[in-house]
Amino acid sequence: MPDLSGIVKAYDIRGVVGEQLDAALVRDFGAAFALLIKPEAPAVVIGHDMRDSSPGLAEAFADGVTSQGLDVVSIGLASTDQLYFASGSLNLPGAMFTASHNPAKYNGIKMCRAGASPVGQDTGLAEIRDTVEQGVPAFDGQRGTVSERDVLSDYAAYLRNLVDLSGSRPLKVVVDAGNGMGGHTVPTVFDGLPIDVVPMYFELDGTFPNHEANPLDPANIVDLQAKVREVGADAGLAFDGDADRCFVVDERGEPVSPSAITALVAVRELAKEPGGTVIHNLITSKGVPEIVAEHGGKPVRTRVGHSFIKAEMARTGAIFGGEHSAHYYFRDFWRADTGMLAALHVLAALGEQNGPLSALTQDFSRYAASGEINSTVGDQVARMLAVKDAYAGKSGVEIDELDGLTVQLPGGAWFNLRPSNTEPLLRLNVEAADRAAVEALTAEVLALVRA
Coiled-coil segments, which residues (predicted)? Predict the structure, then answer.
């Protein structure tokens, strides 16, 4: 039996095309997915990003689905949240072909049940892996059919209906699509809004010729920052490769932390539904639950990752959820993540008042943070234990292991150290009262991690 544990991750499938992923294997994944959801739905909706390998792999997956008697609705080029829209609005399971921000040689599959309900390790992904490893059983009934459907305009209209920008002052906004799917979705979503879009890298190109489509890395927003200052824009937006995440910079070109965006959007959602529950993962700023509580909401802390966030939103009936990585989840969007909707909220908040974005977001940025710092290590478990041992038992220190290792220190500073699911890395996030305290604690923890 093949061992697929290296590419079947916690909440998606991802690997190097030609080495770990090929059409034959993807066809088997499609057939196994069809077997999983056959009792629930008559068809599967499939979308793909702009990577060179994506159309062929999507076609192979569709072949696997139809081989089991289910139909396929192909939406073609799409952002991941556009695929979630299709899954939600058509009430069909879905599969999105993308490796998000990973380099060009990678591709992957994000799957969901009808209504954009996530498929993760505990909700079907392990079962799909087992079916493929053991050999997909043949189906001797009638094959399914493939039809095409364009949902881009419907997706754009749905988002614009959720956020009213009709009263906004005119805004100039630089958008860096990173040669990813934002170049496909932004023109349609922003059409007719009081927003002058200054486009950067809207050409769809899965080789990412200008920079990696990973705005979490500060090196990849340098061009955006410079353009915002150059043209005197009110704000800048940067999307990742599959355009489900959106990063924001203010009028000075300074990054606005995803935690501040989470708090801002949460306050807007709580204004519509007082007392609502808001999910935040354990790496978002502690300012997020503080602000949610101050505005009458119920903050709920959870693990990192979309399948965990969505499950917790379903359990609690949460109206909104945010992550440090700029994933934003909305109950009104089938609890799925959409950076585009978060961006519209930010622009609406900016446009309904006269101050700059830096002033608007200042109230939502209470603490200093390190951002995510990655360290390549030979033994993730050993280094995690070394850090835990160094802090365990110290007076006033609280440790929890909900997701990796979170250490709360006296005085309010804290850090989280998590192993990567996909690489031999440990990811460190630190927060404290000011920049000096962040730098000191970061140095202290990294000395242990990299010893």
Answer: none
